[in-house]
TrEMBL record:
<dbReference type="Pfam" id="PF13847">
    <property type="entry name" value="Methyltransf_31"/>
</dbReference>
<keyword id="KW-0808">Transferase</keyword>
<dbReference type="GO" id="GO:0008168">
    <property type="term" value="F:methyltransferase activity"/>
</dbReference>
<dbReference type="GO" id="GO:0032259">
    <property type="term" value="P:methylation"/>
</dbReference>
<dbReference type="InterPro" id="IPR025714">
    <property type="entry name" value="Methyltranfer_dom"/>
</dbReference>
<dbReference type="InterPro" id="IPR029063">
    <property type="entry name" value="SAM-dependent_MTases_sf"/>
</dbReference>
<protein>
    <submittedName>
        <fullName>Class I SAM-dependent methyltransferase</fullName>
    </submittedName>
</protein>
<feature type="domain" description="Methyltransferase">
    <location>
        <begin position="58"/>
        <end position="159"/>
    </location>
</feature>
<keyword id="KW-0489">Methyltransferase</keyword>
Length: 235
């Protein structure tokens, strides 16, 4: 991986002529993303994210923290003990420059020896497992990192709306897709292109089934304005 997402984040943080990220998926057209959005403060976050940050408690793990905006709020405003992790070395460097005290380059699937009261999987964070057939293994790992009475807060979207309707009013899903929420992501930045990677948007019912299969209870906390939602998993 060229870590272009992280490069854009670090360029923005250091004032190194940041440009918009170009994203495209297997089911959507090319789109430009202003990197500044990843640096939003609490009042500019979607309500679902604000709600998640209000519910966060105790010792916190922010998985796939990106530019660290959620961690920064929890550390500085809520005064919680927050650990921010991401596989992007550039993003973690930006997090450290922003003042996050515990920011580490770390794959959550390889994390050992620590437990947390709240684990955040924000901005479709559960999708980092890439494929639906990996979600149960992913959630099992996440569960192993929770203290007794701990919680997982995650947001995602049901992207069924992006598919065309057939003559019967159902949705037309291509036959070569195992699950309609699975997409292939392409990211470009400053005329460089990242290797395509798998990502997943998981609808609530599918998440609920996977959660129950891995010993979680699953609660729908909040529905957003555009097919998105906030869920809480607890043991």
């Amino acid at each position: 991986m060229k870590d272009l997402f992280g490069k854009a984040i670090l360029d923005y943080q250091t004032g190194n002529a940041p440009e918009n990220l170009i994203t495209e998926t297997s089911i959507s057209e090319e789109d430009e993303m202003d990197v500044a959005y990843l640096f939003r403060d609490y009042k500019h976050m979607p309500y679902i994210e604000q709600k998640a940050l209000k519910l966060t408690k105790g010792k916190v793990l922010d998985v796939g923290c990106g530019a660290g905006s959620h961690s920064l709020y929890l550390q500085n405003v809520r005064e919680l003990d927050v650990t921010a992790i991401d596989i992007s070395a550039n993003a973690i460097e930006a997090c450290k420059l922003r003042g996050i005290k515990k920011a580490y380059v770390q794959d959550v699937m390889l994390l050992e020896g620590e437990k947390f009261d709240s684990i955040l999987l924000m901005m479709n964070g559960a999708g980092m497992c890439g494929k639906l057939n990996k979600i149960e293994g992913f959630l099992t790992k996440i569960k192993s990192l929770l203290n007794e009475g701990g919680q997982v807060l995650l947001d995602s979207s049901d992207i069924i709306y992006m598919f065309d309707e057939d003559d019967d009013g159902g949705k037309w899903i291509p036959s070569d897709i195992d699950y309609y929420g699975e997409v292939i992501f392409n990211v470009s930045y400053k005329n460089e292109s990242e290797e395509p990677f798998n990502w997943m948007y998981i609808d609530y019912n599918t998440l609920q089934n996977a959660a129950h299969a891995t010993g979680f209870t699953c609660e729908l906390v909040q529905e957003g304005e555009h097919y998105d939602y906030l869920a809480k998993l607890s043991v």
